[in-house]
Design brief:
The complex is a heterodimer of chains A (264) and B (307). With 264 residues, chain A is an all-alpha fold. Chain A contains 9 helices and no strands. Chain A has a single domain (2-263), classed as Orthogonal Bundle (MetI-like fold). Chain A has helices at 2-22, 59-94, 97-112, 115-126, 130-156, 160-167, 172-208, 220-226, 235-263. In chain A, helix 1 crosses helix 2 (59-94) and helix 2 (59-94) packs antiparallel against helix 7 (172-208). Chain A is elongated and about 75 Å long. The two termini of chain A are 19 Å apart. Chain B has 13 helices and 2 strands; from the N terminus they run ααααββααααααααα. In chain B, helix 7 (144-158) packs across helix 10 (215-252) and helix 8 runs antiparallel to helix 10 (215-252). Chain B has a two-stranded antiparallel sheet with strand order 1-2. In chain B, a hairpin with a 4-residue loop joins strand 1 (80-81) and strand 2 (86-87). With 307 residues, chain B is mainly alpha-helical. Chain B is flat, with a radius of gyration of 24 Å. The chains are: A mainly alpha (264), B mainly alpha (307). Chains A and B meet through helix 3, helix 4, helix 7 and helix 9 of A and helix 1, helix 6, helix 7, helix 10 and helix 11 of B.
């Protein structure tokens, strides 16, 4: 019962955040860049539910508009990692022993390096920005998917129905797309769901460090970064964008674990 | 056992080689002339340029350059930071102290707290389990950099209990350690509690109880030992996470350390320093994993006799 309640609550939160990302205008009448110097650094009130920042911009509005870029980074990095990881996993499982050795050693090396540092190395090379952050996170998350897809494929290709498909003379490509991939799909989706949260945190951290979207973008990590000098006088600037990140990640994790329990 | 050691050594060499190769690739993938990339945004004399070309063998074919680079790293030469006007090894050496202090203290706190929590909450009343697993869920979901911001805002700015800036003394270490230790503690507690719950169902636990041993005694003397192996494995994996978490935490609490050094290097496109830090953490990974393998032997006598 308790588990169900948590799942329902998490789904509602995710629905609201998705709404904020797709149609922010429905949740707030203001725009994220509307500055009002006279209203700078005001605490939460009836006019400004979550207070205002140093430029007098409404924090609630900025958090609502920040949903899209914040989610985009997490989803984008995960999508890219799933595609690259699946390709590598299939290559390792079906490409013969030598290919398998090379791919899996590569995977092991990337997994052994600290994730954030690897991202920082990539960003030193590429420079800051949303796309580069997505690329950097995908680079070090892809190996987990490669491992999973390889393991799944190894099991599935020995299964009776694949043997049957082979003996029926189906082409290799058709067997992979019609028989192997759909069966590796379920655990992949579960892992990806949970990992969206991790990718989101990584993207927000990089943004906070000034390496993601640049000001005045209302991305949550970037908002915290821009508010750094005002934490001592305006606690709401330090609190609310972080609450948005944490609630999102928490909800994603709860939903992900729920899916995980259902398939196992 | 010998086989195990050999595998570990081979993996270690592979990881180090991989890290060097990743760094070398990054250097050459960066848009622009390699000399300019190494110099970053600094201005140097033609003599220094010529020196860099000689040091890295940049007038040689790519494969020779790679061999030169590999050779230099093997000799412990991580190159020069032209931004800091010192060698990368010197720059890292000057900053590693405070970082090791923070990382060490955080790991220690995380291990002590999670062991205590796991022993106290494993197989207890449902509401205790429910509460602790809810807290664990929150613990792994909060981004470390925001935990640090939260602690700074509440305990330094609002309550004034701890200094907001600097690494001076024990008081300056408390909040950073909590921020770094929180995610590690929650992951460890979760894993240890699940391990303990499985162990406490084993027949030998019942045997120990029938001999009149107290519940806490059984947990400490018998059950705990059985979860040590997976715990140590997880700690090894968490070291990488800790290094990453420290970058933001050091910045938020204005502490000196490798994190701040790295961040400044990323901002200033000081690639030699970033490469140096990546190599350093690869070495750290290798050392930690060797220590873990030795700990396995200490924990489980069966592994010792297996040779």
């Amino acid at each position: 019962m308790r588990v169900r309640a948590g799942f329902t609550l998490a789904s509602v939160v995710l629905a609201l955040i998705t709404l904020a990302a797709l149609a922010p205008g429905l949740l707030t009448g203001s725009t994220p860049d509307a500055a009002d110097a006279l209203a700078a650094l005001q605490g939460p009130s009836a006019d400004h539910w979550l207070g205002t920042d140093a430029n007098g911009r409404d924090l609630f509005t900025r958090i609502v508009y920040g949903a899209a870029p914040s989610l985009l980074a997490g989803l984008g990095a995960t999508a890219l990692a799933v595609v690259v990881g699946t390709a590598l996993g299939l290559l390792a499982a079906l490409g013969g022993r030598a290919v398998d050795e090379i791919v899996m050693r590569l995977v092991e090396i990337v997994l052994s390096l600290p994730t954030l540092l690897l991202a920082l190395l990539v960003i030193t090379v590429t420079g800051p920005g949303t796309v580069n952050v997505i690329f950097a996170i995908a680079l070090y998350t892809a190996p987990s998917y490669a491992r999973l897809v390889r393991a799944q494929t190894m099991v599935i290709r020995k299964a009776g129905f694949v043997e049957a498909a082979t003996s029926l003379g189906l082409s290799r490509g058709r067997i992979i797309t019609r028989h192997v991939l759909p069966n590796a799909f379920e655990p992949l989706v579960v892992l990806a769901t949970i990992e969206v949260g991790t990718a989101l945190v990584a993207a927000a951290s990089l943004s906070y460090l000034g390496l993601g979207p640049q000001p005045p973008a209302p991305e949550w990590g970037a908002m915290l970064s821009a508010g750094r000098d005002y934490f001592s006088v305006a606690w709401w600037i330090a609190i609310f964008p972080g609450v948005a990140i944490t609630l999102t990640v928490l909800s994603i994790t709860v939903v992900g674990r729920h899916l995980q329990r259902r398939i196992s | 056992m010998i086989r195990r050691i050999l595998t570990r050594l081979a993996t270690s060499v592979l990881v180090l080689w991989g890290a060097v190769t990743v760094s070398f690739t990054a250097l050459h993938l960066t848009p622009g002339n390699v000399v300019d990339v190494l110099i970053g945004s600094n201005i140097v004399t033609p003599e220094v340029r010529a020196q860099i070309i000689r040091d890295y063998g940049l007038d040689e074919p790519l494969l020779t350059q790679y061999a030169t680079y590999l050779g230099r790293v093997l000799r412990g030469d991580l190159g020069q930071s032209y931004q800091l006007h010192e060698s990368v090894a010197t720059a890292i050496g000057a900053q590693i102290g405070p970082s090791l202090q923070l990382a060490g203290a955080s790991l220690l706190v995380a291990i002590v707290v999670s062991t205590t929590l796991a022993i106290l909450t494993a197989r207890r009343k449902p509401w205790i389990r429910g509460l602790s697993s809810s807290l664990e869920l929150i613990g792994v979901s909060i981004p470390t950099f925001w935990t640090a911001i939260l602690l700074l805002t509440v305990f330094s700015f609002q309550l004034g209990w701890f200094p907001a800036v600097g690494a001076e003394g024990l008081a300056g270490l408390v909040l950073p350690v909590i921020a770094v230790a929180l995610p590690i503690t929650t992951m460890l507690t979760q894993m240890m509690r699940e391990g303990l719950e499985l162990t406490l169902e084993q027949p030998f636990v019942l045997t120990a109880r029938t001999r009149g041993m107290s519940d806490l005694g059984v947990r400490l003397r018998h059950a705990l030992r059985h979860v040590l192996i997976p715990t140590v494995t997880l700690i090894g994996w968490l070291v990488g996470l800790t290094v990453g978490a420290m970058v933001a935490v050091e910045q938020i609490f204005s502490r000196q350390g490798i994190g701040q050094l790295t961040l400044a290097a990323v901002g200033g496109k000081d690639l030699p320093v970033v490469m140096g830090v990546v190599l350093l953490t690869a070495v750290l990974y290798v050392v930690v994993n060797i220590v873990i393998d030795l700990l396995y032997l200490l924990i489980d006598p069966r592994l010792r006799s297996a040779s």
